[in-house]
């Protein structure tokens, strides 16, 4: 069975509720996963908008998610969880910042990508962004799952 990723906030291909958008409450949506490979030592997550006018825009990057976890709770980025490492998104913040497509744009896709890794920790400089983190974790990926939602301003 392959690695799976779901959210109780939205289903694959459906709109992401305003609550999770930058113009809403801007809180991290709950995520859950299953069927991780047996040799998984940690997980990493990136959230990307491939429809941004300037090219792919990263809204969140998280590494060092413990292997025994099977979910990230709503608002996980506001908790003082020592295990997680948030990398700077393209807004320049080391946290989740939700969807914010330009007014008048058609709906943008937001792709939540979870990687099961063969290493327990990923270490990068403090200034590293979500894109650099994802490039590093791809070298250690055992399996990947994705969940896509949409949002329109």
Automatic annotation (TrEMBL):
Q: Name one Pfam family in it.
A: PBP
Q: Tell me where on the tree of life, at the top rank, the source sits.
A: Bacteria
Return the InterPro entries for the record.
PEBP, PEBP-like_sf, YbhB_YbcL/LppC-like
Protein name, please? YbhB/YbcL family Raf kinase inhibitor-like protein
This chain's source organism reads Rhizobium tropici
